[in-house]
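Page 47, continued from p. 46.
Same chain as before, 179 aa.
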Amino acid sequence: MTQTPYSRRAALAAIFAVGIQLAVANRARAETPAAVEAPAPTEWSSLSSEEQKALSRYSDQWNTLPAEQQQRLVRGTRRWLAMTPEQQQKAKERFARWKDLSPEQKELARKRWHKYRELGPDEQARVRDNYHRFKKLTPEQRQKLRERWQNATPEERQKMLERRRQRMQRQGRPPPPQD
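Result:
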């Protein structure tokens, strides 16, 4: 019995739709906690003197803050206090750059972050590796690469990606997923 391409496509589409439905239902079920326990408030007196100093602007209102916010602030403060002075300086610079972004740029950054977080561990590692290699380029090389990509036609971009995949395979590295 031979199937027409249309019936094969319809069958594949139906299987795909059922698979998506099951995946979404299972993910929703996995994300729905059985019993959500509210975090306990953090007493101001339980914070170290360094933590209190870092959080001093919240001292007057600390007891009125929601427990979740208190815990986020404490976690952030502990991360901050664990940083070296160089790491703190870099964090300040990143925050200053973030503040200077337009709302549209911030939204694009958030979307890219969420898209990155949805990648598997191998893809995340590949993105990080590519980012670090890009950052090692001189500013002139980076600009040249950006201009070359922006000025390329869709067909030229596909060829560039294909050449990159071939180079990676020759080097024994797994190629990036195809778009």
